[in-house]
């Protein structure tokens, strides 16, 4: 008969009662594939995967180098002064260029502080002769030593001369000091 219902399958259980299918509208979520295979290569076989694993190692190595370097700079104050001398001098000269009441005195203090940091020695109280001897002992050429004397002498002349403070002379002296500090930085490395 055509109107007959399909037979109800029974599922054997523990013998107590049979389970019957109530409705036939439940569809399978995914059809069963004809063959079983992996759709793509495993992630562990890609180069990017292993490079990403290397990033924490690089970060750890970078942190280790940074910690050792800061500890070394904390222990060796002379090295720290020597390394940051050029940066501080350039910053100071830029400040002098923008605004200052006493450019000659500030340029002199900047050059003296730079030399003190580079030699890890107080240079402020040295006479010009003693400073010249210190520069000669460091192996600087006589031309550069003469330029140091010239800049410091021009600073003293600008500070103590009765002529007054002219902006064009202080700007020229500032440029001389900048080139002098750059040249000293390359020679004292």
Task: Explain how this protein is built.
Helix 2 packs antiparallel against helix 3. The protein is an all-alpha fold and 189 residues long. The N and C termini lie far apart (106 Å). The chain is rod-shaped and about 125 Å long. It has 6 helices and no strands. 62% of the residues lie in helices and 0% in strands.
Assess the beta-strand content as a share of residues. under 5%
Distance between the termini: 106 Å
- CA radius of gyration is 41 Å
Derived structural class: mainly alpha
Give start-end ranges of low-pLDDT stretches.
none
Number of helices: 6
Fraction of residues in H or I helices? 55-70%
State the total count of DSSP E strands. 0
- Overall mean pLDDT stands at 82
How do the SSEs run, as a string of H and E?
A: HHHHHH
Give the arrangement of secondary structure elements.
Blueprint (H helix, E strand, L loop, with lengths): L46 H29 L1 H22 L4 H17 L8 H10 L4 H19 L6 H21 L2
In short:
This protein is mostly helical and 189 residues long.
Please supply descriptive tags for the structure shown above.
0% strand, 189 residues, mainly alpha
């Amino acid at each position: 008969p055509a109107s007959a219902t399909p037979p109800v399958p029974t599922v054997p259980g523990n013998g107590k009662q049979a389970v019957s299918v109530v409705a036939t509208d439940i569809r399978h979520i995914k059809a069963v594939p004809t063959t079983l295979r992996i759709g793509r290569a495993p992630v562990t076989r890609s180069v990017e995967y292993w490079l990403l694993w290397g990033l924490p190692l690089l970060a750890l190595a970078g942190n280790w180098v940074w910690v050792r370097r800061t500890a070394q700079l904390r222990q060796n104050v002379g090295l720290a002064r020597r390394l940051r001398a050029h940066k501080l001098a350039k910053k100071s000269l830029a400040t002098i260029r923008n605004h200052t009441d006493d450019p000659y005195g500030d340029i002199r203090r900047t050059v003296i502080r730079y030399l003190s940091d580079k030699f890890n020695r107080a240079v402020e109280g040295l006479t010009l002769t003693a400073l010249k001897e210190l520069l000669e002992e460091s192996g600087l050429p006589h031309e550069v030593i003469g330029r140091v004397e010239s800049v410091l002498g021009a600073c003293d002349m600008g500070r103590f001369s009765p002529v007054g403070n002219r902006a064009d002379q202080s700007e020229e002296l500032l440029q001389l000091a900048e080139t002098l500090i750059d040249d000293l930085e390359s020679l004292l490395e």
